[in-house]
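Justification of computing resources. Each target in the renewal requires a structure prediction run like the one illustrated here; the chain below, 100 residues long, is used simply to show the kind of job we budget for.
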Amino acid sequence: MTSINEALLTPLIAAVFGQPNFATVGQFTINGAVFSPGIVFTQLLNFVLIAATIYFIVVAPLNRMAQRRKAEQPAAPPAGPTEVELLTEIRDTLVHQRRD
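Resulting structure tokens:
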């Protein structure tokens, strides 16, 4: 999936924003320490793009396939008597047999 990001999405970002990543954007120095929030933004953007790619290539088609399979399955047969109903019937039958 990273190859899709590197081969397709990063050049698209470069075409829109003029550079392939934001490593130097917003860079500042405090007491000799260099802070680069652009690197964090670049990694966050890469993560979101890869997650979206995986979702639309893998997850969404599998969900559609599962919905189709679910729609094709026949309806469940009608449920039989419950356990309580069966036990009540057995009890009534035994009571009736004892009387005879």
